[in-house]
Amino acid sequence: MAMTETGARVLVVEDNDMNMQLVEYLLEKGGYQIVKAASGEEALSIARTGDPVDLILMDIHLPGIDGLSVVREMKTDAVTSAIPILALTAHAMRGDKDRFLEAGCDGYISKPIDVKTFLSSIRTYLRA
Ligand code: MN
After folding, report:
1. How many A from CA of 15 to the centre of ligand 1?
2. In CATH, which of 3.40.50.2300, 3.40.5.10, 3.30.1360.140, 3.40.190.10 is domain 9-127?
3. How far is the CA of 62 from the centre of ligand 1 (A)?
4. N or C: which end of the chain has fewer CB within 10 A?
5. Which among 76, 40, 75, 42 has a CA at the least distance from the CA of 58?
6. pLDDT tens, 42-80?
C-alpha cells in the first residue's frame, strides 16, 4: 500500500535543533531517510549536488537566505524544480499560505508540528 514511499529521502531544512530532532524522529519512525541542513545555503548545495531527494521540508525563518528565497531558487533551477517542497512555519496565518504557494511551495506544515498528522501529510505530498 504505502510501500513505494518507504525509504524515500527527505531533505529537512531547519535551524532549530529541537524542531529538527522531532522531525527526524517522526520521519525515521515512518521509514524515511533524512538529510539535514541547518541553512538555506546548505540546502541549496545538497539539493543541487547531493543524491536526489524526494521531498523537501523547508523552515521559512533561517539565518542567511530565508526559506522562501531558497524555494524560489530551487523552483527556477531545472535540477531541483520538480522536488515537492513543504514550508515548515509557525506563521501559517491568512495570507501566508498565498506567499508560500507564490514562492513555489507545494504546501505547508504548521509548527508546532502535529505528531498525529505529520506522516500522513508527508505521504500526501510524496504522492502528489
Ligand atoms: Mn527557523
Report:
1. 5
2. 3.40.50.2300
3. 5
4. N
5. 40
6. 999 999 998 999 999 999 999 999 999 999 999 999 999
Q: pLDDT of 71-107, one tens digit each?
A: 999 999 999 999 999 999 886 677 888 899 999 999 9
**What residues contact 36, with CB distance under 8 A and at least 6 apart?**
11, 12, 14, 20, 24
The pLDDT tens digits for 105-115 are 999 999 999 99
Terminal-residue alpha carbon distance, the chain = 15
**C-alpha of residue 23 to centroid of ligand 1, in Å:** 13
Extended beta strands in the chain, E state: 9-13, 33-37, 55-59, 85-89, 107-110
